TrEMBL record:
Top-level taxonomic group: Bacteria
Enzyme class, broadest EC rank: hydrolase
HAMAP family documented for this protein: Pep_deformylase
Record-level Gene Ontology MF annotations: peptide deformylase activity
InterPro entries with a match to the protein in the record: Peptide_deformylase, Peptide_deformylase_sf
Protein name per the record: Peptide deformylase
Active site, per annotation: E142
PANTHER family associated with the record: PEPTIDE DEFORMYLASE, PEPTIDE DEFORMYLASE, MITOCHONDRIAL
Provenance organism: Microbacterium candidum
Protein family: Belongs to the polypeptide deformylase family.
Cofactor(s) required, per the database record: Fe(2+)
Gene (name only): def
Sites where the protein binds Fe cation: C99, H141, H145
């Protein structure tokens, strides 16, 4: 297993729809193992294959609930259904999120509170996950990556301008930019 470099906002793979996985091969199994290691080293609660430069419809996730119960897995070729979002502005204290591909920052973003995700696991067995709250947020965030959308693309105009200023200051927004979890300082 290996920690992989995480691509930053300007990399084209982050802005293009990912391709479905046709067959679960040893290469796919290795990729997923490396994604788990990278996600843990970052640390993050989710990681989509495009974030490590692979344009395939795969993401990993991990989370502990308030009782410390673990929730961890991988979804290949996911489909996502969500309950409509409640209208209004996001609560910055309760609805902020960050992204390993725009590291070191968090912005408020309204998401649907409940989702259903289906797909397959590494054995090819069906996966069906119906979750709410932060787990639903994780599912939506990672699924967005598979469609070439980053959470910063969904921000309001004011936050979007802040993102652009930060990206210019840090020299991000160009193809090929990445950082290595456990090695690079992401608080640029």
């Amino acid at each position: 297993m290996a920690v992989l470099p995480i691509r930053i906002m300007g990399d084209p793979v982050l802005h293009a729809p990912a391709s479905p996985v046709g067959e679960i091969t040893d290469e796919i199994r290795t990729l997923v193992a490396d994604m788990f290691e990278t996600m843990d080293a970052a640390p993050g609660v989710g990681l989509a294959a495009p974030q490590v430069g692979v344009g395939l419809r795969i993401y990993t996730y991990t989370y502990q609930d308030d009782d410390g119960a673990p929730w961890r897995g991988v979804i290949i070729n996911p489909e996502l259904w969500m309950r409509p979002m409640e209208p209004g502005d996001p609560d910055p204290d309760e609805e902020s999120e960050g992204c390993l591909s725009f590291p070191g920052e968090r912005f408020p973003l309204r998401r649907s509170d409940e989702v259903l995700v289906t797909g397959i696991d590494l054995e090819g067995a069906p996966v069906r996950i119906q979750v709410d709250g932060w787990r639903a947020r994780i599912m939506q965030h990672e699924f967005d990556h598979l469609d070439g959308t980053m959470y910063i693309d969904r921000l309001d105009d004011s936050d979007w301008k802040t993102v652009q200023k930060l990206a210019r200051k840090r020299g991000w927004g160009r193809p090929g930019q990445s950082w290595m979890p456990g090695v690079d300082d992401i608080d640029a």
